[in-house]
Amino acid sequence: MTGSKTKIFGVLGHPIGHSLSPVMHKAFFKEKKINADYFAFDVDEKNLGDAIHGADALKFCGLNVTIPHKISVIKYMDEISEEARLINAVNTIKFDYVKDLIIGYNTDGIGAINAIEKNLNDGLKGKKIFILGAGGAARAIIFSALSNNAEISIYNRTVEKAILIGNDVKEKLNKYLKVVHLKNLKDELKDNDIIINATSVGMFPNADECPINEYCIPKGKVVMDIVYNPIETKFLESAKKRNCMTINGVDMLVEQGAEALKIWLNMEPEEYLINIMKKSIIKKLKNKPKN
């Protein structure tokens, strides 16, 4: 039961009803017997600053931030991590009451990297990764993967957005990002080890959509989708038919959540706890109404 000594955490977004972050964090706190609770808060853009400072005044222990606030929240931070600076987005906030600081972090990229590495049992050094999309998730994965010495190619329907990320990568990391055009898409996909859908295409309720023609997916690759609802997207279903190893979006969701817990609690969540978080998400998704 929540009381005066309960540690309070939460997630800010608009809308926020779809968020599964409370499910996995509550499962973690319950298993660890930590007196803490986690809530979803629907916050409009105009009230974002008030929400952050209100949480600080109320001695919240930490917050996650989701769409559409990951960039606009930066101006309310006293400090941001190097990862957040590179990605130019914050998805995790820590209230440091000893130093009287509000600190912003980004765990999206490292969450994706951890999900890949745990499934491959291998590092990313020298791996060729193909990213579909040029939004915030793509950006987070790209900067984290490049920092782990992977090679990156990117395709986006609006090529100018991909070029902008490439320019930012060059400026901040002095590394090269290969921008792929539609006419070369199928051939370029074959030249990569890992293919990641970093768009929202295929997300419920549009679960019959696929970010690329399924026949463009090369055989025998590692294919990941950041979409977690449905658990197996059309993209992953098509990849399985092509004898690819698949990684679903639940893994990334849980891994980025585990990284946030590490920041807030100064502890490394054990693997069994991460598995409990994952099972709680899968159970919730499987029990969700279909309409």
UniProtKB/TrEMBL annotation:
Its EC number is 1.1.1.25. Pathway: Metabolic intermediate biosynthesis; chorismate biosynthesis; chorismate from D-erythrose 4-phosphate and phosphoenolpyruvate: step 4/7. Keywords: Amino-acid biosynthesis, Aromatic amino acid biosynthesis, NADP, Oxidoreductase. The keyword Metal-binding does not apply. The active site is at residue 70. GO terms for biological process: amino acid biosynthetic process; aromatic amino acid family biosynthetic process; chorismate biosynthetic process; shikimate metabolic process. Residues 121-200 form the Quinate/shikimate 5-dehydrogenase/glutamyl-tRNA reductase domain. GO terms for molecular function: NADP binding; shikimate 3-dehydrogenase (NADP+) activity. NADP(+) binds at residues 82, 133-137, 156-161, 226, 249. Shikimate binds at residues 19-21, 66, 91, 108, 228, 256. Pfam families: SDH_C (PF18317), Shikimate_DH (PF01488), Shikimate_dh_N (PF08501). Residues 11-93 form the Shikimate dehydrogenase substrate binding N-terminal domain. It comes from the Archaea. Involved in the biosynthesis of the chorismate, which leads to the biosynthesis of aromatic amino acids. Catalyzes the reversible NADPH linked reduction of 3-dehydroshikimate (DHSA) to yield shikimate (SA). Belongs to the shikimate dehydrogenase family. PANTHER family: BIFUNCTIONAL 3-DEHYDROQUINATE DEHYDRATASE_SHIKIMATE DEHYDROGENASE, CHLOROPLASTIC (PTHR21089:SF1), SHIKIMATE DEHYDROGENASE (PTHR21089). This is Shikimate dehydrogenase (NADP(+)). The lineage of its organism: Archaea, Candidatus Altarchaeota, Candidatus Altiarchaeia, Candidatus Altarchaeales, Candidatus Altarchaeaceae.
